[in-house]
């Protein structure tokens, strides 16, 4: 009995064929997922001109017999999905069978396949089978798609430039390599290798193949579970943050998905560790009973909704935060610029301007070192010291540079601390804590402060007056569009009472949607930023000593509330290296 079944009209209609092939990536995806479903342990993808000219996928999977090889190109034939119900319980990766005919219709396809017995070769041109003959292939499948859209020039025009097409393919193959560390993936474009994994099942090694070895030393393993969810994977140190969200890789039951909700949860877990607009590198697998997810499948994307999202959110949030709070995150300055040359840097590629397809051939260099570290076992960084309750050792200030950067030392090395960022962190945590206690003790002012407002601001303020009262303010209306502040929270800094009050009132007025967490957060950041010592403020050695001690006692001494670093270090060894007291 043939493994391929003809799909019902109903299901076929659900899958809009025209949307299946839009980008070269869609073709690669279709072919690679066929290879994965064929139980391959090695998948090679060779592209010419980002796949526009040619895409070849070679696998060592189960292969097909002659009947299936021919049937694979007839419309609505699929080996995976027989009924609509299957869509919701699918174990395979997607829409096998539907896309192959679509691809064949707009290209030239040569399929060589062997199920271990007889080899078959099928040649299809513009959707028509031209030739079926025996092949000398011994095992697996080799499929070549040439001249995509040659007979539909209009669609050819819709392809993006070669960089974008390639970036999409690399991104997709990276995600597959991360999802299937047991499968060896080799991706090349115009004979340049872009990714080469070993298929031995070590996820951290795959991360190294994609992001470079230096990054693997800065990845933290996480693993946690509750009654409904189990999560495991790796998250990066804040210092590795990139400007693309694309490096957040989420798998659900081993399958790569995109989900803005989960992305947001992960980014929120790094709150104040990473500046806004920067994103960590993450590979996170979520194991869950399919009953708890609602899958909405579309030929080109997959949408997942989680029930009990709050439970999942807590799990992800707490496990990432716990890790970040347990390790030393001071970025170390090294003499040599990192040797890391990632095979492929997505960030740099997508930002390149858009040349025309014809004018352009891509040339990516392979990281020569790639081969050498294939043999070594990759182990998570040993430099992850667990630090005592104070996460940084005591530092002794020796001076200040540009009235901004404090220089300090201890037996481990030299430290440079941004005095404003450090003070900001200290005050931010202090204000957050004070507001969090809901201890609304207030201090009466000898002379109440009168504040005149715009009429519309006055209305907003009146509406949200309870928020101010909760904080410990006593406020009265005082004539037209004017308020009188009689008492203020006890924790306002006494050197800037009026300024603080005005800032807090501004925040109330400017906050459109009222979220009390966001409000206290905003108040803490604003007061910390405005009322902390600034760059260029002169401070004494004693002040510095006090500042460093208080920084050491914060929950996160490594970044200011905006996610900028407070502190960097040159280790003693690194200094000796720089001055050639030690060699290499
Ligand atoms: Zn600031
Ligand atoms: Zn800051």
Task: Give a brief rundown of this model.
It is built from 20 helices and 24 strands. By secondary structure, the chain is α+β, with helices and mostly antiparallel strands.
General description of the model:
It is a single chain. The protein has 584 residues and is an alpha+beta fold. It folds into three domains: 9-196, Histidine kinase-like ATPase, C-terminal domain (Heat Shock Protein 90); 203-324, Ribosomal Protein S5, domain 2, CATH 3.30.230; 371-584, MutL, C-terminal domain, dimerisation subdomain (formyl-coa transferase, domain 3). Helix content is 34%, strand content 25%. The protein is built from 20 helices and 24 strands. The strands form six sheets. The chain has an eight-stranded mixed beta sheet with strand order 7-6-5-8-3-2-9-10. Strands 11-12-15-13-14 form a five-stranded mixed beta sheet, with helices on both faces. A hairpin with a 2-residue loop joins strand 6 and strand 7 (128-134). Helix 10 packs parallel to helix 11, helix 14 (419-436) packs antiparallel against helix 18 and helix 14 (419-436) crosses helix 19 (541-552). The longest helix is centred in the N-terminal third of the chain and has 18 residues, at 162-179. The N and C termini lie far apart (66 Å). Mean pLDDT is 82; it is low at 8-18, 79-96 and 337-387. Bound molecules: zinc ion (ZN) (2 copies).
